[in-house]
Amino acid sequence: MKRYVIASTLIVGQVVMAGCVGLSDVKMSTVDREQTKTVKVRAENKLPDIGSVNPSHGAVAGGVGGAAGILLASAISSDGGQIQVTMKSNNIDLPAILRDEFEKALRSRGGFSIVDENAPADAEMVLFVNKCGFLPVHGSRSVLYPFMNVSASLRKPDGTVIWQRTDVEHPQDKGGYRFEDYIEKPEILRGAWSTVSGMVSRNLVEELSD
Hints:
By secondary structure, this protein is of the alpha/beta class. The protein contains seven helices and six strands. It starts with 8 loop residues before the first helix and ends with a helix.
């Protein structure tokens, strides 16, 4: 049986720092906003290792709540490999899901026209998944919820970054299932990624619109 125990506040601090990964914020200028009308969206295919805690293996993250608890559990988690195997064998493409959800949020908010990836555009929105996985919340170890840390970077054709933001989301009131459900029922896994991708996309698009 695998077992992980939080030993010191130093570990907590280190993990919180590690969890704050992502691209630094860049605010869009008035000129760039006026000149940017058409946007294409691309999600980087490279994913980080997917963290997941299998409660049956006795993973412990007790005594640390909120974001610190989530980031700590991410760092000491196990069994994410099973999630990745399930994704690969069932064609669950997280970058594609994230891209679709971001485009949906961008269309809903308005302000930019989305063009095909092969069409010319004023700028390209590039999405990066920095961290992702499934972790317990609310003090329960039997139900796991998805989380994602995503950076969005809007770039001109010459590569100049004109806007950039990182957001972390983890639904805590819906979309939670047992570890076994994610493995045995791929559509639940697909739906969980869609839920958290939608959350992070809407937040990033709101920041972009502001």
